[in-house]
Amino acid sequence: MLSFIGINFTAIEFAHPEFFFILPLPLLVIWLTPIYKQKKASVKVPYFARLVDVTGEKPQSGAVLLNRNNLQRLITLISWLCIVTAMAKPEHIGAPITQSKSARDLMIAVDLSGSMSVEDFTLNNNVTVDRLSAVKQVLGDFAKGRENDRLGLILFGDAPYLQAPFTSDITTWLTLLDESEIGMAGPSTAFGDAIGLSISVFEQSQTKNRVLIVLTDGNDTASKVPPVEAAKVAAAYDIKIYTIAIGAPTAVGEEKVDLAVLEKISYLTNSASFQALDSEELQQVYREINALEPELFDSVSFRPRTSIHYYPIILVVIIYILSLSLVNFRFYLNNRHLTNRKSFTALPSAEVEK
Q1: pLDDT score recorded for residue 344
Q2: Which of 17, 32, 78, 82 has CB 3.0 to 4.6 Å from 312, enough for a Cys bridge?
């Protein structure tokens, strides 16, 4: 594998290869443009032949063509090749890099109606807490296990509110969940409108795997769109809705959970409906959802491109500096040789005068 100073020459591509078409340009200039001529003053003398005999110089033609030697031609050719190569912008193609990102957007909608304050949930340590506190604790464990998914959060009561758009920052998502309080969205339950808001958020997402998990402990009492109708729209957008009923099924009034509606919603969206009466059952629900909706990944592979157009420019500069140094060195040697020769010629004349 050809390589030099860490560059693999077999992995080089040109961003603008069309510039190589101008490589023959100097030849066209030589063929089509006239030879450069320059006028110089001269002196006519009647004794030219005697002057030639005295000086020993040979007469030459009046027009003198300056021709480069082979080394000069080679330097010119290399410099032109380097300039054109730099204009073509060579790029070094690095080794493939594969990145994995989430292929699923997971929205969680939490009911914050007044009935979520009922303390009928028992944690694993036999401590009884209100329904929202139990939901927060179990959701925290669930979210930590979905680090590769993009999570969103909707809180709903009288109306739904987007608390957190889809994000991969699980820590921030958990903070926003912990800051939610009972009644902050109103005392009623707008279950259908929460589904409608999630549809709007999913429309802005490019991920095709869309899942909505809804936790509620009462029937819908404040929605402008009935939950079943909202679920039909969600199904048209390929959104799965997992419904989780929280609280005792024997409750009455607004606190009564309409299990038939929740099951109908899950059926329409090709998902599942669950019921959790305590913290252990709620954890089991999330485990089943994890099994039904395993984490998905989209692999994105790319090869980094690094421009190396400056290498040919550096080479031209080095050639120029070396050539200039060589010319100056030869000029110095010639001047020194000429000075020594004049000194050697003038020495016998001085001795004769003595």
Answers
A1: 57
A2: 82
Structural domain total, the chain:
2
**Which residue in 242, 309, 250, 253 sits closest to 282, CA to CA?**
242
How many C-beta atoms surround the C-beta of residue 230 within 10 A? 25
- 90 closest CA partner among 307, 257, 319: 307
Classify 130 as helix, strand or coil: coil
pLDDT tens digits, residue range 279-336?
Answer: 788 888 888 887 877 665 555 677 788 888 888 999 999 988 988 888 888 888 877 7
Nearest to 263 by CA among 246, 241, 284, 278: 241
Alpha-carbon span 104 to 120, nearest angstrom? 33
- Same structural domain, 89 and 170: no
Angle between helices 227-236 and 191-203 (to 10 degrees): 20
pLDDT of 129:
83
Tell me the two tokens of residue 287: 């485990």
Q: The whole model's pTM is what?
A: 0.59
Co-location of 223 and 85 in the same domain: no
State whether residue 105 is helix, strand or coil: strand
Same domain, 145 and 259: yes
The candidate with the shortest Cα–Cα distance to 245, out of 200, 280, 275, 201, is: 275
| pLDDT at residue 354, rounded to an integer | 45
Residues 108 and 233 in one domain: yes
Smallest CA-to-CA distance from 178 within 133, 125, 113 is with 133
| 264 and 348 housed in the same domain | no
138-157 pLDDT per residue, tens: 888 888 888 778 899 999 99
Domain membership of residue 246 as a residue range: 100-302
Q: Which residues touch 182 (CB under 8 Å, ≥6 apart)?
A: 112, 113, 114, 116, 117, 130, 132
Query: Do both 268 and 319 map to the same domain?
Result: no
